[in-house]
Design a protein that fits this description.
Layout lengths: L20 E3 L10 E3 L2 E3 L3 E5 L5 E9 L6 E4 L3 E11 L3 E10 L9 E11 L2 E12 L2 E3 L7 E4 L5 E5 L3 E6 L12 E7 L5 E8 L6 E7 L6 E11 L2 E11 L6 E6 H4 L16 E8 L3 E11 L4 E6 L6 E4 L2 E5 L11 E5 L2 E10 L8 E7 L6 E7 L13 E4 L7 E6 L8 H5 L2 E9 L4 E10 L4
Parallel strand pairs: 4-10
Antiparallel strand pairs: 1-2, 3-5, 5-8, 6-9, 7-8, 9-10, 11-20, 12-33, 13-16, 14-15, 15-22, 16-21, 17-20, 17-22, 18-19, 18-21, 22-23, 24-27, 25-26, 26-33, 27-32, 28-31, 28-33, 29-30, 29-32
Amino acid sequence: MRRIIQLSLGLMAAVLLGLVAAGCDETPTSVEDFDFQPDLRSPASASLVLIGDARTTFTITYQGLDGAPQITPSGDLVTSVVSEEGSPQRGGTQELEVTYDGQISGNSIVRETIAIAGQADGRQIADTVSVSVAPFVVSTDFQPRFAVVSDYDERTRSESGGASATVVESSSLNLTRSTGVNSLEISDPGTGGSVTFERRASAPSADRFSFIVRPDPSTDFNLTLTFTEETGGGTASYDYTIPVESGDEWVEYGIGFAQINPSFDPVDSRAGGSGALESVTLSADANVTYAVDDMMLSTAELDVIEIHDFEATTLEYSCVTLEGSSDVADESAGFTSRRVDGGGCFGYNYNGLKVNLPNNGVLSLRVKGSVDGDALFAFLETPNAAGGYNFDNGTEIALPAATEWTTVTIPLSAMGDEPSAIYSEGLNNVGFESRGSDPDFLIDDVQFQPTGN
């Protein structure tokens, strides 16, 4: 079987262990004078995706053991020690590599385990890592590290066959790791019902489709995704089905373009492809109610194009002229930009747009047609100015003399003090002010992302 994409880790944060020591006497003089209390730590779970090289790694930490831990994988899992540091007694770590020697039937998920055990003074200390093996990404460890403020492109939704869909506030669904406060709840009778999301998107920098699902609480079902793209001669559609297990925890899925179909290439001709994505359709095979959110075109490291996250600005405001334009960058996801004509304010109010970014994260946008002397004043607003994000902490960025589309990045640290507030509290406003003698330029793809992406 050809294995095609990447590896994904679920709940893979390795716990770096501090040494717990009890003194042997009141005046210890060396490390030998301490008793190291036995301890063994490993991640709760991992996800092994049968794509590409089909391997993943994780780290275990330990101390107070008689010898190195014994690793015992189940089924067709294969483990090996990639690196080892320290000692079993005084504190050590091992990085383990996991591969899979078996075959997966269709799009099913295989559940395996890795038992980890160590001996300490005649007693055993043990831990278990649960491993999900699948031909696609399936993970409960995810956070939104990308959010679109505005790309000026239209997104529409339609239902058929008795299916219904309603945008709901995610707080009522116990969702805490998405880009905002909304998700889409779908009731599907499982007899030809479907929900279609129409959104033209070009994905030259992506290689997979990812989204998160809150399952039906009591019923397993198969979810079929139909991807329709433009081609030189019209359109082509491809189906991919994933099993969704019942539960109340949000799960992230990721499906490689090559898995969907070797011919699936959602890239517009302007970027060298055969045609852009037109739509994504979801249909279940059972009478279920589930929710979806953060539908993205992604890479292994980052979401890069939004299909839909069900957030929408509560107000696009301006005191300058904003006109639509079909002039976009070759690498842009969409097909529409905005012309900013004149000096003054414009921006986007939101009901809690969220993104979990590092301190060096950025607000990114594309500009074209600006001249020397043109500038943008940018500011962010959080509830009660949490994290120092308010108008007074905004920053002015000089725009380049840009006859072609140019990417401009504005550090989050230049507009506030603590980027974590953008995730914990959410954004109420992303605001700008165009400045210069007579500013007149195009703007597109206003979005949050980690620096360098």
